[in-house]
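Follow-up to my post from last week.
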Amino acid sequence: MKLPRPVIPTLLAIAFLSGWEWYVRTGHVNEVLVPSPSHIFKWFYESLVNGELLSATWVTMRRLMIGFAIGAALGVPLGALCARVRWIRDTLGVLALGLQTLPSVCWVPLALLWFGQEESAVLFVVVMGTIWAVVIAVQESVLSVQPLYLRAGMTMGSQGWHLWSRVIFPAALPGIVSGMKQGWAFAWRSLMAAEIFVVILTGFGLGSLLHAGRELLRMDQVMGVMTVVVGVGLLADIIFFAPLERWLRSSRGLER
Amino acid sequence: MSNDKVITPALTLRNVTKRFVGAAGRVTAVEDISLDVREGEFLVIVGPSGCGKSTLLSLLAGLEQTNEGSILLGEDPVRLPGRDRLVMFQQDALFPWLNVLENVLFGLRLKPGLTEEERLESARYYLSLVGLADKEKARPHELSGGMRQRVALARSLAPNPRVLLMDEPFSALDALTRDQLYGDIQQIFTKRKKTIILVTHNIREAVCLGDRVVLLSPHPGRVREVFEINLPRPRRINDPELASLAAKVTAALSSHINEGVNS
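User reply:
Got it. Predicted complex:
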């Protein structure tokens, strides 16, 4: 008999959590430094009930969405421009390639000096985390569009904006989505870094909650927030990027 | 060619020369080609690889520009791609993000002065002409290679171009599918009276489809000989008469190649 696919992961998770619980409860480790799963869950429940967790998640998600949207909205046309114009590719394209490797937390000091401890400082860091990955992805996927599609489109009378919107972008879309996904991951990391390192006066996000947990020596809170952060990242992939990529691939017959 | 009647040809090539600068230096792809393509004629350009036949087709399509000489469509010079000269490529070049019907509609939607219903009607008509009326919702990857080329044919015919250009559209297909498509193309050609220019390296195919077969020799591509094919249509690729004509063209081609090697 074949077990349904979720069975083994669930059993393993239960075993892992029970083992952890048992290990902490029997006093093998300092419970202040390593909280038990039930402790973390208790924190999770309480902060959910008193609204702390939801409001922090909301603050963080809003920053992420806005920053990511700005980064993507700027990155797509800039990437297209890099692909289209040689000298822009040689300047902005190269710069993007370099800045993409810069850990986005490096933008934090600059952002603070420019914008102060404000919402705009966090957004700036998120945008800087997103934009370069998107620029590079769009540039590369536009450059690797099969010339045959362009020729076919052009002979049918497509040119200019029509050629871009009906041939080049659809053809480049799988690559662009992969770039978006990468940009999203970078944005998420840079946002956490910004929230943990900087007290942003305009809102108390997940990063701030995590930082506060450290200062209060509440490791259940620290690990609880970490779980939420991981969960958000996973969820974004499960409900947004993965289905989108799967659909793009299967509708074009690229699925193995 | 001097016995041609003096009516405006569909396409006129006058001393067309095209050079490329590649890694190996300057290469003359086609040199001094002059041809008249009659309205409603099926012209086949045949030659070995390197004879510049695909370059010639790109020039006709307006995807490349001539260095010397001129190409006229009717009386207008050809410089850019245009709906009046649609191309069927070696690979089907169907857009994988669109379904079959949307692919056929692509060119039609770029044609002004039509309502959406007229476009749909026209797209469906051409899909049924190539025998794929029931496949309009399918995605290109769900079709066989032969079906895809049929969709590509419908897509090129639907906007009713003045000239249909075909760049070895059968070369990637298996023999059985190919034979079937030869039949389809001839049927459509007889029915629609379209001017068609086909480029191929397959001499049998050339003789099977063409009213006239233009033989190009390579390095640089030049017109060597022009054969009038007066066999009745529909022609079958295995017809013995056709085979002996093809052998004649093949012989001419090899003599030109040997000539080139010896000189």
